[in-house]
DNA sequence: TAACTGTTTGACATTTTTGTCGAACACAAA
DNA sequence: TTTGTGTTCGACAAAAATGTCAAACAGTTA
C-alpha cells in the first residue's frame, strides 16, 4: 500500500488513542477501545506500535510537539509580570478549551510517572517557571505592586486556569450543569480571570 | 478468634486500601499491593471483602462517614456569604491537609463513575451547593458587595482550595519543591486564601 | 482432649488484557 | 500473471490480575 495511507492510519490511531488515554488514563485505557475508536482491528495496533507503552509514548510526544500546548510562547522578560500573568491565563484558557480533558490526565501522569511526563513536557516548553514567574513576582511584591507570597500567587494563577478543566466532571455534577452550559461557562472564564487578576493580588 | 481482632484486621485493610486507592486510583490499584500494605495475604482480602469492587465501595463509605470530610458543617443561612466562603475555605484546607491525596482521586472518580461518588458524597454532606453558595453570591453581587459571575466566583473559590492538592505532584516537579517544603506551603495557604478572599471579588 | 469457630494459606481456576504469528489479502510493479 | 510489499485478520500464547476452594491453623469452649 502507499506510504500516504499508512501515515493516515497511524495518525488515525494516534488521534483515537489520544482521546481514550485522556478520558481513561493510562491504566484505564484498553487497546480494544482504542482499536474500536479508530475503526481498525486490535492486532493492527500492534503492527503499527509494538505495545501499549510505545503507543502511549508516541501519543504523548505527538501531542506536545503539536500546536496543542497550553502556552505556545512565553513573553520575554521585558514584559511586566502582571501583563505576563494575563497573557499566560489567556493562552492557557484558549488552548485548554480545545482539549478540555487533557488537564486532569496530565495531573495523573505527574502522579504516576512524574519523570516521564516532565521530560516530554519540558522538551517542548523549555521554560523555567521559577525564573519566569516566581522571581519577577517576588520583585513586584518588593516594589509593592503585588501582595502575598510569590509561590502562593503563582499557584493561584495556575489554580484558576486549570481547575475548571480538571474538576469539570465534579463541578458539572455538583452544580447540575449540562455539557453545553459548562462549555459556555469555560468560554466565558477567560474574561472573568482577566478582570479578576486586576484586583486579586494588588497590594 | 475474638470479634475484636477481626474488626481490627478489617480496619487495617480498609486503611491500607484507602492509601493505595487514593494514590493509584481504582484502575491502578492492585489487590496485592493492598495486601502487602496491610501485612496480610491477598486471599485474606477476599475473605473479608469478597471482591475488589466491594472493598472499594466499603472504603469509600467508610471514608465519608468518618470525620474525614472536607467540610464537616456548613454555616446556616443567616451567616453572611462572604464569611461563609471564608469558613468553607478554612475547613477545606484543614481537612485536606490530613488527606492530601484524596482530592485528585475524587476528581478521577467523578470522571469515571460520577453517579456512585456523587451518591456516596451527598449521602454524608447533604448540602445543595446552588442554594447554599450560588444564590447568596448572586444576591451579594446584586447588592454590589461582590463582582463577577456567581458561578465563576464559586468555581474560583473551589479552585484556590482544591488545586494545590490535586496538582501537588505537578507543582512540586515544576517548582522543584521537596515534599516537606510543599507541605509547609500547603499549611500556609489557608492564611493566604483568607487574605486573598478579602479583595479578590470585592466590587 | 475433642469439637467448634473464625482465620489464614497455598494451590488452582477464571477472567481480562496484552502480545505474537502466520495465513490471507490488496495492490502495484515487473 | 507473477512477484513483492505492506497491511489486515483470526487463532493462539502469555501475562497479569482477580477470584475460589479445601486444607491447615489458632484459639475457645464444652
TrEMBL record, chains A, B:
<dbReference type="InterPro" id="IPR050109">
    <property type="entry name" value="HTH-type_TetR-like_transc_reg"/>
</dbReference>
<keyword id="KW-0238">DNA-binding</keyword>
<protein>
    <submittedName>
        <fullName>AcrR family transcriptional regulator</fullName>
    </submittedName>
</protein>
<feature type="DNA-binding region" description="H-T-H motif">
    <location>
        <begin position="30"/>
        <end position="49"/>
    </location>
</feature>
<dbReference type="Pfam" id="PF00440">
    <property type="entry name" value="TetR_N"/>
</dbReference>
<dbReference type="InterPro" id="IPR001647">
    <property type="entry name" value="HTH_TetR"/>
</dbReference>
<dbReference type="GO" id="GO:0003677">
    <property type="term" value="F:DNA binding"/>
</dbReference>
<dbReference type="InterPro" id="IPR036271">
    <property type="entry name" value="Tet_transcr_reg_TetR-rel_C_sf"/>
</dbReference>
<dbReference type="InterPro" id="IPR009057">
    <property type="entry name" value="Homeodomain-like_sf"/>
</dbReference>
<feature type="domain" description="HTH tetR-type">
    <location>
        <begin position="7"/>
        <end position="67"/>
    </location>
</feature>
Amino acid at each position: 500500500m502507499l506510504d500516504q495511507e499508512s501515515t493516515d492510519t497511524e495518525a488515525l490511531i494516534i488521534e483515537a488513542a489520544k482521546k481514550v488515554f485522556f478520558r481513561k488514563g493510562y491504566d484505564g485505557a484498553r487497546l480494544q477501545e482504542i482499536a474500536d475508536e479508530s475503526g481498525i482491528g486490535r492486532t493492527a495496533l500492534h503492527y503499527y506500535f509494538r505495545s501499549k507503552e510505545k503507543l502511549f509514548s508516541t501519543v504523548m510526544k505527538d501531542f506536545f510537539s503539536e500546536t496543542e500546548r497550553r502556552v505556545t510562547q512565553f513573553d520575554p522578560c521585558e514584559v511586566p509580570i502582571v501583563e505576563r500573568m494575563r497573557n499566560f491565563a489567556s493562552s492557557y484558557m484558549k488552548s485548554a478549551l480545545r482539549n478540555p480533558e487533557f488537564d486532569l490526565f496530565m495531573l495523573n501522569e505527574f502522579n504516576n510517572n512524574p519523570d516521564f511526563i516532565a521530560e516530554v513536557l519540558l522538551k517542548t516548553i523549555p521554560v523555567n517557571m521559577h525564573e519566569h514567574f516566581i522571581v519577577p513576582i517576588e520583585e513586584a511584591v518588593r516594589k509593592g505592586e503585588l501582595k502575598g507570597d510569590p509561590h502562593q500567587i503563582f499557584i493561584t494563577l495556575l489554580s484558576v486556569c486549570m481547575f475548571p478543566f480538571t474538576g469539570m466532571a465534579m463541578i458539572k455534577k455538583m452544580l447540575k450543569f449540562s455539557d453545553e452550559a459548562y462549555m459556555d461557562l469555560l468560554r466565558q472564564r477567560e474574561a472573568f480571570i482577566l478582570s479578576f487578576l486586576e484586583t486579586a493580588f494588588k497590594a
